[in-house]
Every structure is written in C-alpha cells, then in structure tokens.
Amino acid sequence: MRAGVKKYQQAFQAEQGNKDEKLREELILKYAPLVKNIAERMAIRLPPNICKEELVGPGIMGLFDAIEKFDSSRQIKFQTYANLRIKGAILDELRKMDMISRSIRKNIHRIENAMRSLELKLGREPEDFEIAEEMGVDIDSYYKMTMKAQGAGLLSLDEIMPDGTTPKLSRQVSDTLSPFDKLKIKESKKIISKALSKLSKKEQLVMSLYYYDELTLKEIAKVLDLTESRISQIHSKIIIKLRIKLKSYYKD
C-alpha cells in the first residue's frame, strides 16, 4: 500500500506538479473499497434520511487528499492516515448538510443544562427520571429527546469547542497544527479519557462495542440483552456527558 502511494508521489515530483491522471485513477480505484467501508459504518450511526451514497463522494475526496499529502517518511501507515482524512471529509460534508435540526440541538442543550444543574445540587450523577423532572417533561418525552439526539453523536464531540480557533478533533492529521492546537487536542483526549473512566460498566461496554468493535446499536442490544432504543438512549446520554465535561473545561 505504501509502495503504491510512494510511486504516485515520485511520479508527481518528476512531472513537477502535472499529476499523472492514469496513476491517480488507479490509486483511487485501489483504495475505493476503504471509502465504501468507512461510509457504510458511519451511515449506520446517522438518521435514516442520510444514506451511504451521500457519504461516498466526500469520502473519495478525502482519499484523494490523503494520496496527495501522504508523506511516506513519517512514522504512520497510509491506511491510518487515509482513514482519518476520509472520515474528516465526510464529517465536513455532514456539517454542511446541517443534519441536526435546531429543535434537536435545543433539546440537547436543555438536557445538558438539566444534568449540570442536578450534579451541582445532588453531588452525584442524576438518574433519568430526575433529569426529566428538572426539565419539566415526563420520562417518555425525555427518552424520545435522547433518542433523537442519536444522530448528533458523530458531530457532537467535534463541535463543542466554544472558541473558533480550537482544532476539530476529526482533523488530528492536519499538516498545519500549531503546538498550541496539539496541546488542546492532547488535553481534550485526557478529559474524554477521564470522563469515560467514570462511566458505569454498562456504559463503558456500550462505548467500547460501538466505537472500537464498531458494532451497530442493534448488535449491541443483542449482546447486552436490551432493546435497541435503550442502547440508543444510553449512547446519547454518554455523548451529552462528554459534551458537558469538555464544555466546562474550555469555559474555565
């Protein structure tokens, strides 16, 4: 794989910027299955109105970007680099689509505020019924809100930085990150890691199966013998918890 990319780079340099279109097409075709695989995995986590086909196009652009900018002298595998570039390109496209409605964003903020307020009052993590009561809604309405927030999962942690200069977490392979940007990313990872360590065993298992083993919500539900809707609620609540931790850190 690296040899193929290196061959492209050599041809690119030899022609002094006149890219070999045939070689480019060969590489795109060779690694296109990687784009399809990533698009399929991400589509599973999105609302039904977003289809896989809409993600493949920007994913291909991310792949092309990876081929053009990959430096074989760096201690990183091309597939790792391409994975991040492809995912970053798809996330950028999803932001442009504004896939999360204003009402869903508003409800996410309402849940965040209720959870934060209750943690201060109670000195512990609030239960679901307590959050619903704080919001002035019944428990079923609260669960519906958290389920609708599921589609925000991919973008939530990537958009919570309050200052416009903070680097997006999906762009960790950027070639232009400043030392300050790198420090912020490092600190964000520490905060997320600490927050994850405080989750219940069930919550940690859901996150591990979802993000590391890349199981679908339906598959996780079978593993834990719960309903898919319940797994969706658990996942959304975890994302909101992480948002609160990161927001609190960057506001301090």
What are the main properties of this structure?
Rna Polymerase Sigma Factor, Chain: A; 2 domains; mainly alpha; globular; Butyryl-CoA Dehydrogenase, subunit A, domain 3; about 250 residues
Written overview of the protein:
The chain has two domains: 2-97, RNA polymerase sigma factor, region 2, helix turn helix motif (Rna Polymerase Sigma Factor, Chain: A); 102-251, Butyryl-CoA Dehydrogenase, subunit A, domain 3, CATH 1.20.140. It has twelve helices and no strands. The protein has helices at residues 2-14, 21-44, 53-69, 78-97, 102-122, 128-135, 139-148, 153-159, 179-197, 201-212, 217-224, 228-251.
Task: Set down the secondary structure blueprint.
Blueprint: H1 2-14, H2 21-44, H3 53-69, H4 78-97, H5 102-122, H6 128-135, H7 139-148, H8 153-159, H9 179-197, H10 201-212, H11 217-224, H12 228-251
The proportion of residues in beta strands is: under 5%
The overall pLDDT, averaged over residues, is: 76
Percent of residues in helices comes to: over 70%
- How many domains, in number, for the residues? 2
N to C succession of SSEs: HHHHHHHHHHHH
**Main sheet attributes: strand count, strand direction, barrel closure:** none
Q: From the helix content, strand content and strand pairing, which structural class follows?
A: mainly alpha
CATH architecture of the largest domain: Up-down Bundle
CATH topology of the largest domain: Butyryl-CoA Dehydrogenase, subunit A, domain 3
Beta strand count: 0
Number of helices: 12
Shape field: globular
- The CATH class of the largest domain is identified as Mainly Alpha
Q: Indicate the multimeric state.
A: single chain
Q: What gap, in angstroms, lies between the N and C termini?
A: 45 Å
Radius of gyration: 20 Å
Spans with pLDDT under 50 lasting ≥5 residues? 15-19, 157-174
